[in-house]
Structure formats: C-alpha cells, structure tokens
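BUG-503 | component: ligand-complex export | severity: low

The export step for flavin-adenine dinucleotide jobs runs without errors, but we want the raw record kept on the ticket for reference. Input record follows.
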Amino acid sequence: MIIDDQHYDLIIVGTGAGGGTLAQKLAPTGKKILILERGDFMPLDVQNPATTEIFKRERYHAPEQWYDQDGEPFSPQMNYAIGGNTKIYGAVLQRWRERDFEAVQHQKGVSPEWPVKYGEFEPYYSEAEQLYKVHGAVAGDPTEPAHSQDYPYDAIAPDEQITEITEAIAQQDLHPSPLPLGLTRQDDDPTNDSEVSGINPAMAQDNVTVKTKATVTALHTNASGLEIKAVEAEVDGQAYLFFADIIVLACGAVNSAALLLRSPNDQHPNGLANSSGLVGRNLMKSLLTAIVQLRTKANSGDFAKTVCVNDFYWGDGDFKFPMGHIQNTGGLLTDVIFAEAPPTLSLAAKFMPGFGIKQLATRSIGWWAQTEDLPDTHNRVRISGKKLYIDYDSNNTEAHDRLVYRWMDVLKVVEKNVDGFQPVKVHPRSEIPIQVMANQCGTCRFGIDPATSVLDVNCRSHDIHNLYVVDGSFFPSNASVSPALTIMANALRVGEHLVEVFA
Ligand SMILES: Cc1cc2nc3c(=O)[nH]c(=O)nc-3n(C[C@H](O)[C@H](O)[C@H](O)COP(=O)(O)OP(=O)(O)OC[C@H]3O[C@@H](n4cnc5c(N)ncnc54)[C@H](O)[C@@H]3O)c2cc1C
C-alpha cells in the first residue's frame, strides 16, 4: 500500500454530472483538490458515434458484471471515463417541473416531497444552463416552470422530417416544444459534458490534481466513526491511501452506494453512512420505451433530438395521474440508449424485409416515452460477497403503458395527415433492458430526518461529518424528465455550501 504524502482540502471521487460540475465550482477557491476517476480521458472518435457501430453489442458498457435479482449477470451500460455518463448522454438538459419537488399522488403510490423546493433550485438551474451552454426556448410547454434567466443560446432547429411531424402533432391540440440541449457548437466535439465544462476548467487551476485510472475501493473512518480518515484507491493496479479534510462521492447512484456498503467497520457494521439502513435502497431508473414510426423516405440518421411533448405529464382526460414525458430520439445512429433496444429494429425489419440496419435506422423516426418510477425500498443496490446486485422491479407501469398507447394514437393521426409513412399500422416498440442504468438515482436520499434519509439537505452524511454525496444518489424521488441538469444544479448548490464551509 502506498501512503500518499499529500494532504488535500477535498477529494472528489468521480467526474460525471455531479463530480465534474462540483470540481468546476470549487476550483476557483484555491483549495487543494484531488479528483479520483476510475476511467481515463475518452478519445473523440469513440464519444461521437453516428454510424451503425453504436448497435455493436455492449459498445458503451463497463468492463464488469453486475447481477440482477435472479442472479443473472449483466454488463451495465456505464461509461467509466473523465466525464462519466455525460460523455455518452443525449445532452437533453431539462429542469424538473415545480410539482416534481412536491408530494405527488401517482396511480400506484406517492412520489415523495423534496426537502428543498424548485424555488431554491431555480438559481442553480440557471447557473447550470449557462455553464453547459444550453440551447433552448421557453415556448409553449404547459408544464415548464418559471425561469429567472433565459437560455443562453437559441433552441436548435428540428430536422425537416421532425418539423412536418411536429406540425401535425400541434394540430391535435398538443404543445410540442423545443428540447433544451447542452452543446459546445464545436464540430469535433458537439456535446457539452462534464469533462468539457467541469473537469477541463477545473484542471486549468494549479490547485487541482486529477488522477485517472484511480478506482476508489474503500473509505476508512477514524476511531469514533464520525469522520472519513482515508480514501483507499487502486491506481494503475497499485493500492494507495489518500487523505483530505472533506470527501465527496460522485460515483453515480449505484457505485456511490456500493462503495459505502463495501466499507463497513465496527462503528458502521452495515456500511458507511447507513444508520438509516437506506444506503442502496429506493433505486430508481425511469420507465423508458422506444417507439418507432416507419417512413418511406430516408433521413440522415444523425439529426439532433429537438422536440418534447409534456401534455400528458400530469395525466390525460380519462386518467388523472401523472403519465410522463415524450421526446424524439434524434437520428437513430446517434441514440446510444436506442441501440440497446435492438428488438425494436428487428420488429421494423419485419415490415421492411431485405433492409440492412442502416437502411432501417435511417427510415425510422424514434420517440422516447418516459415515466417516473417510484421509490421502493426493495429496489436496491445490494452487495453480497464481491458481487453487486441490482434488485429492481418496475413500478408505476400502468401509467407508463397509458402514455405509450396514448402516444401511438397521436402518431396514427400524424400518419394519416402527413405523407411518407410505410403503409402499416404498427409502431415497433420496446422497453429498455436492465443493462440500461442511465437514469439511476435515489440510493442515498437526502432529507431532514436521519431516520428516513442518508444525507442532510446539503448532501452531507447525517452520520459522517466530512462525507458528501453529489451524484444522482440524493434524489428522494425521480421525475419523468431526465436527471442530469438536476444533478448538475445540485452540485452547484452543494458547491456553494462548501465554499462557505471553506471560508
Ligand atoms: C446513454 C445515456 C444517455 C443519457 N442521456 C441523458 C440525457 O439526454 N439527459 C439527461 O438528463 N440524462 C441523460 N443520461 C443520464 C445522465 O448521463 C446521468 O444522469 C448523469 O451522468 C449522472 O451523473 P452522476 O454524477 O450521478 O454519475 P456519472 O455521470 O455516471 O459519473 C460517475 C463517475 O464516477 C466514476 N466512478 C464510479 N465509480 C468510481 C470509483 N469507485 N472510483 C472512482 N471513480 C468512480 C465514473 O467513472 C464516472 O466518471 C443519459 C445516460 C446515458 C448512459
């Protein structure tokens, strides 16, 4: 074991939406910061797929196995690299709706209230939108919350096929609106992620050290159990101990929980920060279904996601419970999650026999239907021996099915009114498999009461005074829009708290 001879003010573990954003916020303090990241920098050609290569099996999967609740191994779609999952994400950076922070009755249960409300998050949403150069417009979405600042850049214009479809959607008394996207506008690296806007500016400061290929394997407390004393990591195959006053985990909701559960000691026999017994529990990951329209005319296959429809977010005429969010997938040669649902294109192939995967992908228009899943203590990250288990049963599924069927009805009307669709009345669709953990959250929920939450409102452990968690773990509930902007905004919020702690 190598004992690092430095003492840092702060160690951040992980460089994704939470860790990368926090690093950028804290670097100007001049404090001595060490960032430990298990992956490496990702080459540009690997980050920017726009070919059938993305359908290659397990292209963006971590080189490890997790196990489902039946003990079946799978390789999770996780990107271990500087930037984490933001290196492969869709860059849709949407605010949650105001009611997402409140207790909301769903058909199958209650989505619990957050201890911090939209009003307190709002300035950090604005800060995150500026930082990640979000291109958007507040235009017509009936669920869009109030913004104190405009988006820094105009919304991206839709592909022409999407424009004609969107017009036909609007004719059904619905409100398609622009999808906010974090973009750099650089040809070679168009997606704005937490390497570009988080780690790169942080690394430009002398007080920040980044170590890649550094997997944190355990946290050690002092004798009282009230403080983390040392961070154990494997760097390039060699075991190290690092020391700092404050430790921030940002490994993603599964890996942060796993790390805490894998670090038990006499004071914390069930894992660190786990006096509530909730570390790893309440795992949520969204209900997601890909729905495909089949066209006769080709598209490029690599156009941007640009449109969303939230008219069913809180329900529909005959269903008074939240249903969720719709967005277009963009060209199917760029959507990494769609590529995980190959059965969808196999179904399409039945109606377009003889077509290769590229022909199918470029004659398809994809849509995502996304519904909030509810926290359930049985859905969790569990460690048994050396194995990491994901116990997860979907819930709130009727609301999701209703969204999917309602959306297919909308698409059928579009296809009556717009030329250029295959003369079949079906929409191939498929739900995402367990391997897709894109929207993982909830495994270290924040709250006021230490008996019912893992973290306090500043995302500091109730049990361990110098331990924070700033990835998607802190969510007490999910929403039907995706999590990245909320994780970024929260990292900025916690960052502001840490600036005060350091002052
Ligand atoms: C294909 C895909 C598309 C997506 N599209 C969108 C989208 O359009 N909009 C949206 O809002 N969200 C999207 N998401 C989700 C979004 O990317 C995540 O919500 C977000 O990145 C989570 O941030 P995080 O900080 O919690 O974790 P991550 O971004 O996953 O970062 C975790 C980091 O910790 C590192 N790490 C893990 N364990 C260790 C360890 N033990 N030691 C050291 N380092 C470690 C990882 O390598 C990684 O860098 C998408 C995700 C995927 C996979």
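Assignee comment: Attached the raw record above. The longest helix spans residues 397-417.
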